[in-house]
Amino acid sequence: MFIETEGTPNPATLKFLPGQAILGDKTADFPDADAALVSPLAEALFGLEGVSRVFLGGDFVAVTKTGAIEWQALKPRVLGLLMEHLVAGKPILREGIALEEEDVDPADQEIVDQIKDLLETRIRPAVAGDGGDIIFRGYRDGVVSLKMQGACAGCPSSTATLKHGIETMLKHYIPEVTSVTQAA
User: Fold this and answer.
1) How far are the Cα atoms of 9, 68, 112, 132 from residue 155, in angstroms, in the given order?
2) Would you tell me how many other CB atoms lie within 10 Å of the CB of residue 41?
3) Going by C-beta distance under 8 Å and a sequence separation of 6 or more, which residues neighbour residue 43?
4) Cα separation of 30 and 13, whole Å?
5) Which whole-number Å values give the CA distances from 91 to 49, 68, 79, 82, 138, in the listed order?
6) Bridge partners, residue 145, by sequence
7) Three-state SS string across the chain, please?
8) What are the per-10-residue average pLDDT scores of the chain (184 residues)?
9) Residues in Cβ contact with 15 at an 8 Å cutoff, skipping those fewer than 6 apart
10) If we measure between CA atoms, which residue out of 13, 9, 29, 1 comes closest to residue 135?
11) Which residues pair with 180 in a beta bridge?
12) CB 139 within 8 A of CB 108
């Protein structure tokens, strides 16, 4: 197995591309070791000294490091762990794990479908290219709730991306959208 790596706009985050599906059409963000208990892979990565965040994408793993360690020291350990885990066929998520639910008024389903379509076709591919993801969390009274994950969650420009890029695009195409907020 050959695992490629890519830098991201967040210098503390590297994207690892194993050439196979990780979560398919889902993503999971683990901001700390406690959150990672639902994923044997993320839990193992947090066992490496210097790992501060793990994001599992469709076909990649983004790892964020602490400032106390350099990529030169951490990268080979992450590569080894990923290779061992994936070659052995160990599970990515524990069985029976459900990801977060959306907060949507059923009367707004047509607007929500438009928002999700824009996110899927225009926004998520660009964000995934940077080692992260943006997840729809809800829509109420004109306010879209999105969650930045992976490299994007800790990136200094994530607020600007959310407010100026994504909010502007959604408002342009969907007049019912009045603002975009970051979900917890």
Assistant:
1) 7, 18, 27, 10
2) 23
3) 33, 36, 37
4) 13
5) 22, 30, 17, 12, 29
6) 138, 181
7) CCCEEEECCCCCEEEEECCCCCCCCCCEEECCCCHHHHCHHHHHHHCCCCEEEEEECCCCEEEEECCCCCHHHHHHHHHHHHHHHHHCCCCCCCCCCCCCCCEECHHHHHHHHHHHHHHHHHHHHHHHHCCEEEEEEEEECCEEEEEEEEHHHHCCCHHHHHHHHHHHHHHHHCCCCCEEEECC
8) 89 93 83 90 96 90 93 97 96 76 81 90 81 83 84 69 83 92 78
9) 5, 6, 7, 8, 60, 61, 62, 131, 151
10) 29
11) 144
12) yes
Task: Show the tokens assigned to 127.
Answer: 């964000």
Tokens coding 52: 């501060």
Q: pTM for the full model?
A: 0.64
Do strands 143-150 and 132-140 pair parallel, antiparallel, or not at all (unpaired)?
antiparallel
Tokens of 108: 């707004």
